Every structure is written in C-alpha cells, then in structure tokens.
Amino acid sequence: MKSYLYYLLLIISFSLFLTNNISAQEISEDSQTCIDCHESVTPGIVGDWKMSLHSSSSLQLAFTKKKLERRISITSLPEKVTNKFVIGCYECHSLRPEKHTDNFEHFGYNINIIVSPNDCKTCHPKEVGEYEGTKKYHAIDNLKNNPLYSTLVETINSVKVLNEEKLKALPANHLTTSETCYACHGTEVKVDGMKTIETDFDEIKIPNLTNWPNHGVGRINPDGSRGACTACHPRHSFSIEIARKPYTCGQCHLEPDVPAYNVYMESKHGNIFSSQKEKYNFSSVPWVVGRDFTSPTCATCHNSLITNTDGEVIVKRTHNFGKRLWTRIFGLVYSHPQPKSGKTYEIKNSDGLNLPTTFTGKFANEYLLSDKEQLQRKNIMGSVCKACHNTNYTFNRLNKIDSVNKIADKMVATATNLLVKAWNAKIEDNSNPFDEQIEILWQRQWLFYANSVRYGTAMMGPDYSAFKNGWWEMSQTIQRMKDLIEQKSKNTK
Question: Which CATH architecture has domain 246-492?
C-alpha cells in the first residue's frame, strides 16, 4: 500500500512539473514570429534571451512563488499582458506605443526600439519606483545643470591641437562627451526622422535615433522616461547573476576617479570572491548569506535582498543605490553627508555655488542628511557587515571611514588654499578652475587621490590609500603646487 501511494504521488508530482514547465515555456505567436527571423539576423540576441529567466517563466508561474522569492513586484496580474506566455520579444517591445516616439511599423507589427524603465514597470513597478529620483536617475542633469561639473566635462573632453606652435583647445562635441562622461551618465536619445537600412533579406525603414547606442544610468529615453535597466541587467538576458557580480559595476566605477571596482578586487572580500566565485549561487532569490555566498560583492552591500540561513531578512532589496550610504565619498570637492535628493545640481552652498560644501569645507546642510539620518543608514549598512562580523569589528571599520575622510579632506583643503593663493596672486585665472597647470594639480588632488584614499579605506584596499593614487600622491601634489606657485611668482616679478 505504501509503495502504491509513493508511486501515485510521484506520478502526480511529475505531471504537475510537466504542466508548470510546458505552461512556462509557451511562447506567444507574436514573439515566435520575432524569433523565427532574428535567429538568423541577430542570433546572439535570441541566444541571450533563451538563457534568460524571461524565456522560461510566465507571470502566472511567477505568482506561484513565495513573495520573498519573486522577481516581480506587481501585486496582481496586469490586464494588458498575456499572462500565460513567457516574457518574449513582443511582450516587451510592444508596450505603450502611444508614449514611444521610437515606435515604428515592422513587418505588420508596431515595435518600440528601446525598452525603457517605464516599460519594465509593467512587471517591476517597485524597482523602477525606487530608482526614480536617485542620483543615477538624474545623472545627466547632475552634469549638465551644474555649471562647475559641466565646465569640467567640457574642459577634459576638449580636443587639444597644435596650431602655429601654440596649443589650441577645440570645444568638446557630442562624440567626445557621449563616449566618455555621458557613456556612464547617459545621453538623451531622440528620434530624428526615419532611415533605411539594408539587410540580407530586405530594405527596412527604422527610426533614426540620436545619441544611440547608450546604456548610461540616467539615459533619457524616447518615451520621456529616465534610466537604463540594461546598465546592470544587460540585454537580452537581463541577468540577476550578471548584475550581482562586481564586473558590472566595474564598467563605470573604476580608477582613477571612482576606483571602487579596483579597490574591491584588491581587498580581502575581492580575494575571496575571485577564489571561490564558482561555488556561489548568484541567481538565488532571496540571496542567502552563508549558503549562496560567503563574501560580499557590490550588490550585497548596496542593493540586494539578503537573508540568513533561517530565512530572516537582513536587508531588503532596493534599487536606490545610495539608500544604505550615509556619507558621500565622491564629490566636488570634499566628502560630505549624502544628499537628500538625487538632483544634486539643485544644491547651493553659502558661497552660491552648486556644491555640497564651500571651498573651506562648510556643508550646505539643508540639502544633506542630518546626523540622525546618517546614523540610521550606517546601521543599515552595519547589518550587512554583521552577517559575517561582530558588532565591534563592524562599527570600528565603519567609523574609520569617517575618520579617514576627515584627514583626506584636510589634504584637499591644503591644496585648495594653495589654489586660492595662486588666484589671488593672479598667477592663474579663475574663470575656468580646471584648465591651467596649478588648477589641474588641484583637480587631481580631490578627483583622483582623495577619492582613492577614501575608497581604499571604505573597501579595504590599503595600497589605494597609500601609494596607488593615495596619500603618496596627495603629499606630492601639495609640494608640486607649492613649488609652482613660488616659481611662477618669481617669473612675474
């Protein structure tokens, strides 16, 4: 009898398994039409999609999972999506055509070229909502609408040419900026008429997109939305595994100005990751510390849903990547409390500049987190650390970050005082603070060297705090600035 029941249950379980998987793998007729063509035209894209969770999961199946295990954040099945089919080409590229200026007729279908965050919001509204309003969301405006940052971008992206034995700087253009600063911050993608492209099969008319391709975090899309989910979850796999690995963050957050990736790979955490990553489960939701991984990556600390082996939530998932941060390491010119709003270009210090601090280091407090808010965020970050470390170890490390930031800021202040001295002495012109010899040294002091010290301490990469763009270079820069001021002062007499 027991044997009979056992086999009966086995047959029922197997039948349910087949039913779920057949249902999960059912492709809509519209998406199948796309696949039939694109398997020949763009086989890499189709191959990526076939390896994705989208290709093997329907919304109906997603809702059978426990709430903590779901990758979607909608609370009910949407009416306009065919819920029994997998998430295929047509299911994403056909959404909200009335909002997309990049929508066009394509072999009998109305298709959007770019799938925007507002399209992803159909299934992932919470994630998109968390991202909206962040510094990354406003990444374009934080460069363009801040006169100091925009001057910095224009200066470093100008093209220097030798003209009659004199160096001449040609203005930056959309190519030099979109392939440098705005490659990460994002461009504004617009539709400029239609263009004809030739394929092996036919001539096709498609929208002509300006400033495309681009996957910058603050990209402005043809439907008016901001952001590119593909910056971290690349097309067409949209892999959580890729997003959780440090290589993705290393596309933008690397030396010399934001050396987070480099410091991480040098750190003990990076060492353990590099040695044991093959043993980790990067696709599990929630991500269980002690089972799925034993050493954090960028995503662990900054945004992933983390639980312990008992299923207790340590930190909730967030797509606001600054939400667990209390201090802002990167900024012009000093470290400072995190800003309250992602629109950092709206900040004004007491000198009237769009900066979170004055040149003397005074905070623009009304735009920055209070001491209480900073402590709350530090405790959230501390809860991630305490999954592996004791309380004393954790907060000694986190408090050390604040202490080292203050010392690095003093070294920046010294360089800033020397720069102001050069301006007051008319040795250099302060109309553009980034284009002359002493100014460039000052710029390197906070943009490269102070950042290296801060990131090196925060993420345990000691060589980056010392010789690799760290204290050594900060000390050398101060001496070089001092020597140049003395030399130029003599030459002007």
Answer: Up-down Bundle (1.20)
